UniProtKB/TrEMBL annotation:
Keywords annotated in UniProt: FAD, Flavoprotein, Monooxygenase, NADP, Oxidoreductase
Protein name: L-lysine N6-monooxygenase MbtG
Cofactors (names): FAD
Highest taxon of the lineage: Bacteria
Listed pathway(s): Siderophore biosynthesis
GO-annotated molecular function: monooxygenase activity
The keyword NADP is annotated on this UniProt entry: yes
Pfam families: Lys_Orn_oxgnase
Organism this protein belongs to: Streptomyces gibsoniae
Family: Belongs to the lysine N(6)-hydroxylase/L-ornithine N(5)-oxygenase family.
Length: 434
């Protein structure tokens, strides 16, 4: 393993707080995969901290019927360690649901089932400390490693860090500076519509043409709203490209090819390939179009108006309504007023909880991510800082997704152990990308 500090694993550090070989911040799928794989190769050496009081995966975005966009075979462990006890298959078998699950014949599994699986896996792991919000990480010096702080002070020290703090909703500039009554995030829909008494024909707008936007429209329909406008920037509400060649971008062989490309080419490829990751599932689009058509059959009026090719550039408030000004791709502007405006405008990586002097970056500068997902910094030879789910520019379009979770965790563990504890095999490749 990469050289460690003078502390024995999990022994009290000088401050009287526990010391860990590896402190992983966040216990979402990314670090759960790391912990699951570490069970056999680094037992007791990887500890996860999560600010939540208990496991939860994107709460607020679990509307009835929503589906995973990824095969369940791409679970926390299977692609690199199919015999791992925390595989999805073992979850199905040990919870007694495997036959019912198979007979349900899902093309795509419910997101709720994936959440249950994550929760089951988290319960098996004894290495998660919930309710610890890591506000800051400071470097105590070579040989000493990192000190992790929550709001009350230091909580642990570690030789290495794995940052798996995920993403948070992106709010466009025109909504950012002030709070406008009636504007909410997609993950607040349940809370908002379960408590507000809304009349069906109160106008609502969903901003954002991706999967979360489509699911938000369906959720508003299920809350009885009948005057919904769906605004997206792209010229059409584009489906996810789930074809075999698109899925080639989600395999280790392509990852290796991508990492060797010049930066400008990588940037262009990520932009060109984005619909293999950020498009709307075909089944969701069909459900939405069919619901719109069937409501017209039964109620004489389609409840959803699709408005692609629009960019919301101004937001305000007038007479108890939200007022939006949109720039149209076809030219000119238009105005929309609504009682409720749901923002489904994408997500961005949460800020790194590291003291600015640790990485010694210029303001706004992004750290360089090495092939093993560690950040380039001056003490990287003794103290690694790995990042999960924030290396799309260097590692490709798959990085923010669940598809290669276990492959990324395996690469991190192989690097920590300085040996190929998890061989990453992808040899049957029929595509020559360049
Ligand atoms: C609704 C939704 C559905 C998705 N569905 C799919 C899908 O079907 N297929 C797919 O490939 N991808 C999907 N994604 C994309 C992606 O795979 C998920 O966002 C996934 O959860 C990312 O995992 P993560 O562990 O990196 O981050 P997260 O799941 O966001 O987990 C991060 C964790 O870190 C904790 N945390 C953050 N900051 C701190 C801190 N300072 N201290 C302590 N804890 C902290 C949080 O509480 C959280 O538990 C989806 C995304 C969303 C939003």
């Amino acid at each position: 393993m990469v050289s460690t500090s003078a502390h024995a694993p999990n022994s009290p550090a000088p401050h009287g707080i526990p010391h860990h070989r590896v402190a992983a911040i966040g216990a979402g799928p990314a670090n759960l995969s790391l912990a699951a794989l570490a069970g056999d190769v680094l037992p007791h050496d990887v500890v996860l901290f999560d600010r939540r009081p208990a496991h939860a995966w994107h709460p607020g975005l679990m509307h009835p019927g929503v589906r995973l966009q990824t095969s369940w075979i791409k679970d926390l462990t299977t692609l690199v360690d199919p015999r791992n006890r925390l595989s999805f298959l073992n979850y199905l078998v040990t919870t007694g649901r495997v036959y019912a699950f198979l007979n349900a014949q899902f093309d795509a599994i419910p997101r709720l089932e994936y959440d249950r699986y994550l929760s089951w896996a988290a319960e098996q792991l004894t290495s998660i400390r919930y309710g610890v919000d890591i506000r800051d990480v400071r470097f105590a010096g070579a040989g000493e490693g990192f000190v992790l702080y929550d709001e009350d002070g230091p909580v642990a020290t570690s030789d290495h860090l794995v940052v798996g703090t995920g993403t948070r909703p992106h709010v466009p500039d025109c909504f950012r500076d002030r709070s406008i009554p009636g504007v909410l995030l997609a993950e607040e829909i349940g809370e908002h519509f379960e408590t507000c008494r809304c009349a069906p024909y109160e106008p609502a707008v969903v901003v954002g043409g991706g999967q979360t936007g489509a699911e938000a429209v369906l959720a508003l329909l299920s809350y009885g709203l009948r005057e919904i406008r769906w605004i997206g920037r792209r010229p059409w509400f584009a489906p996810l490209d789930d074809s075999p060649p698109a899925n080639d971008f989600f395999r280790p062989a392509y990852l290796r090819h991508f990492q060797a490309l010049p930066g400008q080419v990588r940037e262009r490829y990520v932009a060109e390939q984005i619909l293999t990751s950020d498009g709307v599932s075909m089944s969701t689009l069909q459900e939405l179009y069919q619901a719109n058509y069937e409501t017209w059959l039964s109620e004489g009026r389609s409840p959803v108006m699709m408005l692609p090719g629009r960019d919301v550039v101004e937001a305000g408030h007038q007479d108890d309504l939200v007022v939006l000004r949109c720039r149209r791709a076809a030219g000119g502007h238009e105005r929309h007023t609504a009682r409720h405006v749901v923002l489904a405008t994408g997500r961005r990586p949460a800020p790194l909880p590291l003291a600015p002097d640790v990485l010694d970056l210029e303001p706004g500068e992004e750290p360089y991510v090495e092939a093993d997902y560690s950040l380039r910094w001056k003490h990287a030879d003794r103290h690694k800082v790995f990042v999960q789910n924030r290396a799309q520019p260097s590692h490709g379009v798959a990085d923010p997704n669940l598809s290669l979770l276990s492959v990324r965790s395996a690469a991190i563990l192989n690097s920590l152990l300085e040996r190929e504890a998890f061989p990453i095999r992808d040899e049957q490749v029929q595509t020559l990308w360049a």
